[in-house]
Write a structure and sequence with these properties.
- The chain is α+β, with helices and mostly antiparallel strands and about 250 residues long.
- The chain has helices spanning about 15-25, 75-90, 155, 165-180, 185-195; strands at about 5-15, 35-40, 55-65, 95-100, 105, 110-120, 125-135, 200-205, 210-220, 225-230, 235, 245.
- It binds biotin.
- Biotin (BTN) binds near residues 43 and 115.
Length: about 250
C-alpha cells in the first residue's frame, strides 16, 4: 500500500490544529494533513473546546497556502463545510445540513464543526491557513450539558461508519477545495445556500456590543448571513467575525 507522507496519523495529541500549525511554521507542504484518534485539548470557534474522545470521531486538520488576501481566506470555512457535506454524502450516504457558518447538523443537532486558523507572514499576507474538522462518529458519551445539542452519526442512524472511509473522502474533498479555490466559488456558494439550515430561522447575534434578534434571510456572495432584524433593519454578519445562534435552542 502506498502511504502519502503528507498524511500524518497520531494516536493522541492536544489539538491537530495546534500540531499542524507547528509543522506549517517549519515549512510543511501545502496539503499536509494531520489526523488523530483522540485529542486532549480539542478546540472550537470562539475559544470553546471540542470534545474529542478517543476512537469516537474524526479529528483532522489540513494545511492550505491560498494565494489571496487574508480577508478572503475566511471564506475557506464555508468552502470546507461544503467539502465535509460532500464527503459524508459519499462515505455514509447521509445528507447533512450546514448551520451558518461552520457547524454540520444532523437531526437538528450538532454533528461537527470547522475551525479555520490563519497565520500571517511578516509582510501581512497569508503565511498559511489551518483548516480543522471535527465530526462525531460515535462511541463516546456526551456530557449532560451537550446532550441536547450534540449528536453523532451512530446516535442518528444506529450505524457504525468507518472513520477511515470518511477520512479518505474528506481528504479528497479538501484536495478539491485547494484545486477549485478561488475560481470555482459559484458551485460552493450554490451548495452552501441550498443546504444552509439557518435560512428562514429566528437568530440572535451581537454586533458592536449590542444584541439583536431577527430572521436569517439570505447568504450573500461572500458567504455572509443577512438577517432582517425585528425592527425591519438589515444586518450582514460576516463569517469571520460574528456568530448567529438559534433563538430557541441549538438550531
Ligand atoms: C467548532 O465547532 O467550533 C469547531 C470545532 C473544530 C474541531 C476540530 S477537531 C480537529 C481540529 N483540531 C482542533 O483542536 N479543532 C479542530
Amino acid at each position: 500500500m502506498l502511504r502519502d507522507p503528507r498524511v500524518i496519523c497520531l494516536d493522541r495529541v492536544d489539538s491537530t490544529n495546534t500540531y499542524l500549525r507547528r509543522l506549517a511554521e517549519d515549512g510543511a507542504a501545502e496539503g499536509t494533513v494531520v489526523i488523530a484518534d483522540g485529542q486532549t485539548a480539542g478546540r472550537g470557534r470562539m475559544g470553546r473546546g471540542f470534545l474529542s474522545a478517543p476512537g469516537a470521531g474524526i479529528y483532522m486538520s489540513a494545511l492550505m497556502r491560498p494565494r489571496c488576501a487574508p480577508e478572503d481566506a475566511a471564506r475557506l470555512t464555508a468552502w470546507t463545510a461544503v467539502a465535509v457535506r460532500r464527503a459524508l454524502l459519499e462515505s455514509c450516504g447521509l445528507a447533512v445540513g450546514i448551520k451558518w457558518v461552520n457547524d454540520m447538523v444532523l437531526g437538528g443537532k450538532k454533528l461537527g464543526g470547522i475551525l479555520t486558523e490563519l497565520c500571517l507572514d511578516s509582510a501581512g499576507g497569508i503565511g498559511f491557513v489551518v483548516v480543522g474538522i471535527g465530526i462525531n462518529v460515535g462511541g463516546g458519551r456526551f456530557p449532560e450539558e451537550l446532550k441536547g445539542v450534540a449528536t453523532s452519526l451512530l446516535e442518528q442512524t444506529g450505524r457504525r461508519f468507518s472513520r477511515c472511509r470518511i477520512a479518505s473522502c474528506l481528504i479528497r474533498e479538501l484536495d478539491a477545495v485547494r484545486r477549485d479555490w478561488p475560481g470555482g466559488e459559484a458551485e460552493y456558494l450554490r451548495e452552501y445556500r441550498d443546504n444552509c439550515v439557518t435560512l428562514g430561522r429566528r437568530v440572535s447575534f451581537v454586533t458592536g456590543g449590542a444584541e439583536s434578534t431577527g430572521t436569517a434571510e439570505s447568504i450573500d456572495g461572500a458567504f455572509a448571513l443577512t438577517v432582517r432584524r425585528d425592527d425591519g433593519s438589515a444586518a450582514t454578519l460576516s463569517s469571520g467575525e460574528v456568530s448567529a445562534r438559534g433563538l430557541y435552542g441549538y438550531m
